[in-house]
Amino acid sequence: MYQIFKKEIHSFLGSLIGYMVVGVFLTMTGLFVWFFNGNILDYGFADLSSFFQVAPFVFLFLIPAITMKAFSEEVKTGTIELLFTKPIRRWEIVVGKYAASCFLILCALVPTLLYYYSVYQLGSPQGNVDSAAVFSSYIGLFFLGCVFAALGILASTLTDNQVTAFVLGFVFCLLLYYGIGQIAALPLLGANGYFLQQIALDFQYDALSRGLIDSRNVLYFLSVIVLALWTAHLRIANTQ
Question: What's the CA gap between 35 and 30, in Å, rounded?
């Protein structure tokens, strides 16, 4: 598994993909945090809510772009057969590629700690910021990115076309993050809408952003990740 992980990291860092993903993420979130309407300077108080509101939507586009070639390119070029001949189990291939995607997500998030440092220094008095809420939001955002990566990996196992894999990954992520909540809000569902809303990613993400890490939210994220990767493994296991 480590060899797969290392191979994928070298692939990300040996091309423009990894640097473009980190660069685009920092540029988009930085613009919304510091310059666009509703930025920190307009708020007049130390708060990073604008960052945590826009980051998931940036991830919706970037993470499927990271994962779209994970298996689709391997199948199209025939290199997946070479992987199968090596003494590596299929689930190790899936987890190795997934871990590399999560590592790249972490690399994109770490530089944004400068936003927290800046807000901390700008607070009046200095340090007047809800640090607990900020760091629990970071944990929630990382888990959200990991779920998107798992869904993207799954999408990549369903086709040998990278563009199709990107579209499928985007649709999977959008439905689970935004679509379920919108369906749950329909008046015709009544009280049942609340129970449907609880399985939406945005509901779980918002819950972690309140400064309290609830094991139920963490378990939900882990369950979705395991289910998506298990399905991807089944798909790969049936690939001849």
Answer: 8
* 110: number of Cβ within 10 Å: 11
Distances (CA, A) of 73 to 89, 149, 159: 19, 16, 9
Please identify which residue in the block is written with the tokens 């990991």: 146
Which amino acid is located at 129 in the chain? V
The total number of structural domains in the chain stands at: 1
What is the value of pTM for the model shown?
0.90
Buried b / exposed e over 130-151, threshold 16 CB at 10 Å, is eeebbebbbebbbbbbbbbbbb
The whole-angstrom separation of Cα 216 and Cα 188 is 28
Token pair of 240 as six digits: 């001849």
Q: What is the per-residue pLDDT for 172?
A: 95
Where does the chain have alpha helices with state H?
Answer: 2-13, 16-34, 40-43, 49-67, 72-77, 79-85, 90-109, 113-122, 131-157, 162-174, 180-184, 192-197, 201-208, 215-237
Structure tokens belonging to residue 146: 């990991």
What range does the domain containing 42 cover? 2-237
Size (the chain), residues = 240
| Eight-state DSSP code of residue 211 | S
List the structure tokens of 174.
Answer: 């959008």
Mean pLDDT over the full length of the chain: 84
DSSP state of 175: I
With H, G, I as helix, E, B as strand and everything else as coil, classify residue 190.
coil
What pLDDT score does 41 carry? 58
Distance, CA of 173 to chain centre: 9
